[in-house]
Design a protein that fits this description.
three-stranded antiparallel beta sheet; 3 strands; about 70% helix; MarR family transcriptional regulator; transcription; WH_DNA-bd_sf; transcription regulation; DNA-binding transcription factor activity
């Protein structure tokens, strides 16, 4: 494209991200999860009992969109909504036993993608790349 390696790296990062998402999509099809669903489910599992607003912020989508995803995950048996003990207006999205059991399979599938994506790289190379990407992330977030 040009001589600015920073611009070239930006496009490379975008391409790698796209390919990683596609690889995860392929693996998560085994669990009948769409990209939006598996992405939301990962955050539900990580955040434990997040509110719909917290999930929307984490996923960077509007609350109604998250509501639709939660509905889908609830119908599939992955999550339930529980009333917040402190504020009756808030519903917490909680992973079900089914989701927790499936989380092990999700982790195995994710590890398979990681093994493929990072094959041939040393731990030091992975740590160095992660460090660089963290700095880029911090620069963009500020």
């Amino acid at each position: 494209m040009g001589d600015d390696e920073r611009v070239n790296l930006s496009f490379l990062l975008a391409e790698v991200t796209r390919l990683l998402r596609a690889a995860f999509d392929q693996e998560m099809k085994r669990l009948d999860l769409t990209r939006s669903q598996w992405h939301a489910l990962i955050y539900v599992l990580r955040l434990k009992a997040a509110s719909q607003t917290q999930l929307a912020e984490a996923l960077e989508v509007a609350r109604p969109s998250v509501g639709t995803l939660i509905d889908q995950l609830e119908k599939s048996g992955y999550v339930t909504r529980e009333a917040d003990t402190q504020d009756r207006r808030i519903w917490r999205v909680v992973p079900t036993e089914f989701a927790l059991a499936r989380s092990e399979e999700i982790a195995r599938l994710a590890e398979s993608v990681a093994n493929n994506a990072f094959g041939g790289l040393s731990q030091e190379q992975i740590e160095a790349a992660s460090s660089v990407i963290q700095v880029i992330r911090q620069n963009l977030a500020s």
